[in-house]
Each structure stands twice: as structure tokens, then as C-alpha cells.
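User: ok so my PI wants both of these folded by tonight, can you help

Assistant: No problem, let's get them done. Here's the first:
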Amino acid sequence: MTENVGIKGIKAPKGGCSDRNCPFHGTLSVRGRIFKGVVTSAKMEKSVKVSFERIIQISKFERFEKRSTKLTAHNPPCIGAKEGDNVVIMECRPISKTKKFVVLKVME
């Protein structure tokens, strides 16, 4: 079992799993961007939809606006994120057509 994934402050969950696409107990490597968001849907098997907001500047009107993004992320059984949880997701290799992120941690 790996202690961490190479990300500062993220440690392996206490429970184990046999998922090969788990960054802690499997062979999936993570790299790239990190996002914090809220799980909006957990109806899929081993997948969740994560939504997060960002602020965009509109230079023409000298204003800012909020935009939201929904991403599909792999949810390993050892993490088990549910709807309404605040999670940290990180980029990985493409797991399927739409899944290019994996859940690393459920925040309290």
C-alpha cells in the first residue's frame, strides 16, 4: 500500500480495495490539474459527477461572472464518495470516453 500519491497532504485511505484504477491500491498514476468540488451525482457504478465553480473576468464590461463545470471522475471503492460530499479530484490517464479524473479524498 502506498502512503501517498505524491500530492502533499493526501494520504491513502484506511480501507483497502482491489480496483486496478485506484491511485492508492492499483496502478493508476495521477498527474496534472487538481480541483475541489461537490459530488452532484453518484448513481453510476464506480463513477461520480463533480461540479465546481470558477470566476471568469469579462474585459469588455469590466465585470466578473461565475461559471460552473461538471466533470465525471472515477470513484474507487476504498474512497466511496456520495452525493453532497466535498471531494478533491485529480487528472489521470483516460479511463473511459468521459472519465479523465479520479477522486483522491473526501473532505470533511
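One down. Here's the second:
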Amino acid sequence: MPIWFAYTLIVLLVITSVLLTMLILLHRGKGGGLSSMFGGGVSSSLAGSSVAEKNLDRYTVLVSIVWFACIIGLGLWLKLALNNGA
């Protein structure tokens, strides 16, 4: 595989790592969290969690799937690069 593929995955991995860290910090803990500072503390849903919290959960899962795919892709690329180079 070409080297630009690895560089693309590395850039995507760095971006998703930063996003995932910020999204996890925005989640509400037992006593509130950073999400309550940005309007996530207002609950208006039947389940007790707000729409903003549900969307935050969805975004976190999506970014973590992309992050995990980058890790797997880099591992496979590295394995192929080492096997072809040896």
C-alpha cells in the first residue's frame, strides 16, 4: 500500500483522538459534568436524559468507531509494509 495511506490514517487518528477526548469530557457524570455548563443539564426527555446528551452519545460512538477503524487500518498497513519489506 502507498505511504500516503498511512499518513492519512495518522492524521485522521490524531483528529479523532482529540475529538474523542473532548466528547468524553463533555459527558455528564453522576454529579453533572462539563455538558451541564453548555446547556446539557436541561432534561426534556421521557427517559430522563436530554436530547443533547443522546446526540452527544451518538457522536461519541461514531467518532470512536472511526478511531478504532484507524487503529485497525494502521496495524494492517504496518503488517503488510513489514512483510513486503522483509
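The first strand starts at residue 28 and ends at 29. Residues 13 and 68 are 9 Å apart (CA to CA). Good luck tonight!
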